[in-house]
Structures are given as structure tokens and as C-alpha cells.
Predict the structure of Formate dehydrogenase.
Amino acid sequence: MFKLTSTALSRVAQQARVRTFATTARTSDKVLAVLYDGGEAAKRQPKLLACTENELGFRKWLEDSGHELVVTSDKEGPNSTFVKELATADILITTPFHPAYLTAELIEKAPKLKYCVTAGVGSDHIDLEAANKRKLGVYEVTGSNVTSVAEHAVMTMLVLVRNFVPAHYQYTTQKGWNVADIAQNSYDIQDKVVGTVGIGRIGRLILQRLRPFGMKDMLYYDYNKLDQETETALGCRYVDSIEKLVSQCDIVTLNVPLYEGTKGIFNKELISKMKPGAWLINTARGALTVKEDIAAALESGQLNGYGGDVSYPQPAPAEYPWRTMVNTWNPKEGGGNAMTPHISGTSLDAQLRYAAGTKQILDNIWSGRPQLDKDIIVENGKYVSPAYGQHH
Ligand code: NAI
């Protein structure tokens, strides 16, 4: 019987690889990337990879591999460059920071589209049900910016609990020195009860960072309960419903993905079950909350502060209620409002990681290598990520 020697085997393997690459070289894909504009900042800072000017750093690599790259920030409405170019695109790259909302209707108008890659974490701006119907692959760079978000969430807690924003505004803009006006609503984070809704990558990193502050208690709610060993290592305790969680917490932090099952969960009713005067931090997704209910809770004092970096839609329009909402303590100085544009997951360090991860995902597509399981949101008509819960 014919037997392959190890040299022959390696030759066969080599030929197989050559064949794969030969096939790859013949495929030329049009890649459409919707990114934010860098403007002056892009000129000053070459590390700002995720902007339209710096194109995630891979135009040369992509074109040298025989593919076409179209980059735009223009994403609103049927006449936008996004919608026009999508009609002939094979691969769409988007970011959660300046999201191109890929609706079911747009997917229908993109007959060649095969893959959507999120440069970052969170693919809720893509209609995942419609993507499954079309059997699109939706991938993201899971884990790439989770420490960046956890740092921002902890910073936001400190900023709110210590009443930093009005203090800074008083000092710089008002040229004032009124200690009492700030101290009347300034606390220590130590000895407070904190709770996270969602104990995935970011939820855990937040608790790890909070532990040295000496919290009174650290609680979590997630439909996946951790094992005892992990709970002990993190120093946290499971609560079996979101209502029970929020009723015990001084500080609540949201760390779940946005999908039908989590949309608008922080509405008037749930907020009314929170401790009066609690702080709510949301670096996950704006639409997890009802924006008008958040603003009303700040105004009534039910919430002492709200902060984070996510709104819906993005960019938030000028009249968005969170642009101007304030608490009852320092309304003139912006008290209780610690909102920023979507920046937590796009620090320069994070950009380096998610640009490299996006390039790797493209390289996997073109070399026929499977994607890492962690990076697959949906593929072949099915949810692969365990984060978008109701499908499992
Ligand atoms: P992850 O997938 O590691 O964790 C998500 C957790 O949420 C999982 O433990 C899951 O079991 C839990 N979960 C899902 N649905 C739930 C529900 N209905 N009730 C309770 N728990 C539920 O995700 P990771 O990396 O921690 O990120 C979380 C979210 O943060 C992302 O989906 C994204 O929307 C957002 N994010 C925001 C960024 C920013 O720049 N502001 C950057 C990165 C992520």
C-alpha cells in the first residue's frame, strides 16, 4: 500500500497552502470602512489609528493583497457614502464609536456583503437577526478594549461620587472658591455598595479595580452565575434579580450587551427601585436605558448622578437630554452629569489592539483560517457569542 513519508506529507501540506493562497490571490474584495474623522487631531497624533485619515493603519497591506479599501465617515441617510458604497461592498468594517447602523433593509440592498467586522467590541449597531438570515459573518475584536472601558467606568464613579465636575467647573470657569457648595454632595467611594449588571470581561475588571478602595459590598447580576472560586477571587456576591441588585446598591454599573432582551431595561420603573440618590454608570450602550427617564430621575433626585460615554443614536444630537441634564445639588455647575462622547474604548492603547485584531480577522477571511471563537458574534446563520443571551 502507498504510504506518505513525513517529507512527502510536508510537501502535500505545503502544496495545500500554496493552493489556498493562489485561490486567495484571485479574490479581490471591496472593503468599506466607516470610521470617525480625525481632522487636526489626526495630523498631530499618528497613533490615532481609528480615524478616516489613518484608516486603521492597513491601507497599504490591504491594497498590496489585491483588495480595495473605501473609507468614509459619512453614514447618515440614504444618500450617504456608507449607503451608496455598501451596495457593492464585500466586507464592512465599522466601529461602535461612530456606528454605521446596518439595518435589515440595508443588508437587503447589499447583495455582495459577506462579512461585517467591528473594530472594537459590541455589534449591536448591526441587525444580527437579519445578518443571520443572510448568513453573514459578524466578527468583533473581543477583549481588545475592555481594560480601557473598566478604567473609564471606575473614573466615572469617582468623578460622580466625589462631585468632581462641579468642583472643576467652579474653579476654572467660575473662578470661584466655594468649598461648601461642592462638599455638600461629595462622598468617599470607600464603604459604598457597588453592583454590576453583567459580569463578563468588563464587569470583572471593574470589580477587580474597585476592590482596593474598600467597598462595603460588591454585588453582581448576570444570567450566568459565576462559580464559587471566581466569586471569592473577585470578592463579589451574586444577586438573583436585577431589581434586588439595584435596591441594595449605592453605585450601579452596566456591563451587558445591547439586544432585544436588554433594551431600555433602565426605565422609570427599575430606576424607582434603586436607592434614592444612587449613582448610575453606563459605559455599555446608551439604549440600555430610557434617556428621558434618566434625565427625569436626576432632576427629581432619585439619581444623584449619571455618567458614561454611550448614547443612542451616536453621535448624540445637540438637543439630546443628557447634554444638559443636571442633579439637584449643583445644577448650575453641571452636577451629576459625567457624560463624555464615546471614548472609553478608544484610548490610543485600545486602538492599537483593535486595529491589529481587525487586520487579523481580515487575514483569517482571506487565508481561509477559522476566526477565533471569542471573536465570532454570528456565523452561518447562528449566534456563536454567548453574550447575546436569549438565543442560547
Ligand atoms: P462580555 O460578553 O464579556 O460580557 C457580557 C456579560 O453580560 C456576560 O457575562 C453575559 O452573560 C451578560 N449578559 C448578557 N445579557 C444579560 C442579561 N440580560 N442579564 C444579565 N446579564 C447578561 O462583554 P464585555 O466585553 O464585558 O462587554 C460588555 C458590553 O460593553 C459590550 O457588549 C459592549 O456593548 C460594551 N462595550 C463598550 C465599550 C465602550 O467603548 N464604551 C467598549 C467595549 C464594550
Summary: The two ends are 48 Å apart (CA to CA). Confidence is low (pLDDT under 50) at residues 1-26.
